Amino acid sequence: MKAFRFFILSVAAMASIAANGQKESSPAALGDPAVAQEIRAWIDHWRKAVSAKDVDRVMELYTEDVVAYDVVPPLQYVGKADYRADWQQFFYQYESDLHVETRDLHVGGSGEFGYATGLQMISGMLKHGQKSGMWVRFTSLYGKVNGKWLDFHDHVSVPVEIESGKAMLDLKP
Q1: How would you write the chain as a 3-class SS string?
Q2: Where are the domains of the chain?
Q3: What architecture is the 2-167 domain classified under in CATH?
Q4: pTM
Q5: Which pLDDT does position 14 carry in this prediction?
Q6: Is residue 29 very low, low, confident or very high in pLDDT (cuts 50, 70, 90)?
Q7: Whether residue 47 has pLDDT greater than 70
Q8: pLDDT digits (tens, 9 = 90+) for 81-96
């Protein structure tokens, strides 16, 4: 069931992106406008929790069986405990609050399922004094559980130069 749900949402997300180019989609672009509005509110709540480096508030937004693909190893995080450890490690590296910027946001969904795709930069001051920030691509898939939207799949990536195998971390939208 999860594989089918993932497949359907992936196809819907790609259709929305293709139809909308690089512009932010309107809430009614694909599916129920109320779902899109609720997903946007979820993203705002997530942004505030990440900016505050509040791992408990961040983890409230995920299902117990979340599967996440992050830009750092391992290849995948399965379950809330694994993903919490990834977030804790990430937050630990920063001296102060983080800044989150989102561009080219596409959201949609219907019924109990929703999605968001776009570009994000999370930036801040690292503990050793260096400023950090890079643009990443993201896709998040959501399900409604007991009346509340929860993220059951995150995918975060950066482009790679194929010949060298090196990540391209200096690209900007």
Answers
A1: CHHHHHHHHHHHHHHHHHHHCCCCCCCCCCECHHHHHHHHHHHHHHHHHHHCCCHHHHHCCEEEEEEEECCCCCCCEECHHHHHHHHHHHHHCECCCCEEEEEEEEEEEECCEEEEEEEEEEEEEECCCCEEEEEEEEEEEEEEECCEEEEEEEEEECCEECCCCEECCCCCC
A2: 2-167
A3: Roll (3.10)
A4: 0.81
A5: 40
A6: low
A7: yes
A8: 999 999 999 999 999 8
